[in-house]
């Protein structure tokens, strides 16, 4: 959710002046186990208890599944920097570069195509006065953030490449004016999107882009559609009580993590650039009645779509009057972002067990909406499996923060695991129940998919069997992908549940650094003749301050692990190479962000740019940068560094 909040995420009920039929209200707020109880016996409903036991790899809701899973292969794409070099001739490389430069565009020459505005219903008003926006998917509104001498902090060349943008454009004196919203971009048609959502499990009513203003859609030379959005660009009708602005602190984090996640191989929104506004913004970071002024900033976010689950939920929540908008928006989404579903041909039906004695059949080729929701469920499951693989915790997995494309979206109080703790949450607002903690993320993904399927059912786009099948596919896809990821992280020839469960149990007991451990694990040799008292030597840098009893536990695990490696037939060098391609050397630890923020707030943007270059090559050793792989120092455990609020 993009609000520019000076306060926390408020839980707003559906406004009293807006009548929602009882049946619709019940369908939108009920717990997912009402949907799952017949055919999802192996998936339990989400609770706030400990969902991650020390003897289990997976949360309870996904643990008791048959081991005979489908043979889908999870493609963990390493970043470009880690792929094999193209050994083309110098002439061919030169020719490619020459051809590439032909597509470089100035800001004035960007190819705009406003399908969202053109094809979907608009708010008849274009003012920014806070209000309920009915019968519309968006409101036309222009950036209005106060700006005085804006400065370009950083920019991403790979994102510029996506847009065919000439890199010389970043040198223009007026570039910060365009991307702070102070000057309009030629061809842009700005708007703010209307959406709702469940926040911390409660229906919050209308939310919407409270400080994010989409400039429009760019078509690049490959006919790819990319939306440009300014986050922190000023008030919209969806700002409610907030100011529509963003501070440098949160903007640095979003800019860097957007690019870091992409280079880790994780689907995400991207960030083109970060500019300061030159104005101060008042924020109460800890919601303790002590606000302070912070530098304002704006991030230009880039994605093929910023549609969320809540984009559809809001229209279904308003009953029959707006229910048709769910179908209209779904048709638009499938047409532009799932065209393979729009054009699919008949093929054999898919069947699944409902949990009863009979079997039900779902034909995904006869209902495009059913095929669509299944793909959304699978993309979401795959995304969260990848998060778990690198130890990423989103922190605010409300349905308004769930991308319809399966992207990581809205970087607020996120955090990567340092010491392995399944109950870790980086969000101070989440501390009482830890609903969004690391271990709960797979369950929350399922819960959110359940809310999305309920929305489509309310709009009569899918039936209950199709909804249940989508959730079944979520569970299977998560298991498939996560098992492949963990198998690759350990360099094993096949998944070994017992071995991996025991490893995670040991890591949790000894608070072992998640990233550094897996990176160091590739140094283990598949030599069963190594004496027990020497087994831990390669891991001494990551197994810190463990006593005799714990050393015995780790030695026992290592012996079992080395045995598995020894029978794999893979050489140590080959295994190390493959493991280092999926276990990053560098992640965007929160204390690294804070160091860059502290410098940026006094006008030094060097550390932001150094971190950007670092996270663009997370799997490379990068000699001379080893300090960025260190554990958090003591000062990093102060409030506002390793744990954050939603204030931004």
From TrEMBL:
Q: Which family, according to the similarity comment?
A: Belongs to the SELO family.
Q: What is this protein called?
A: Selenoprotein O
Reported cofactor(s): Mg(2+)
Q: Which InterPro entries match?
A: SelO
Q: What start-end ranges are recorded for coiled-coil regions in this protein? A: none
Stored HAMAP family: SelO
The reply to whether Disulfide bond figures as a keyword in the UniProt entry is: no
> What GO cellular-component annotations does this UniProt entry give?
chloroplast thylakoid
Instruction: Give UniProt keywords alphabetically.
Output: ATP-binding, Magnesium, Metal-binding, Nucleotide-binding, Nucleotidyltransferase, Transferase
> What is any one GO biological process for this UniProt entry?
response to water deprivation
Q: Give the species this sequence originates from.
A: Sphenostylis stenocarpa
> Which GO MF terms are attached to this record?
AMPylase activity; ATP binding; metal ion binding
The annotated region (Disordered) lies at 1-24
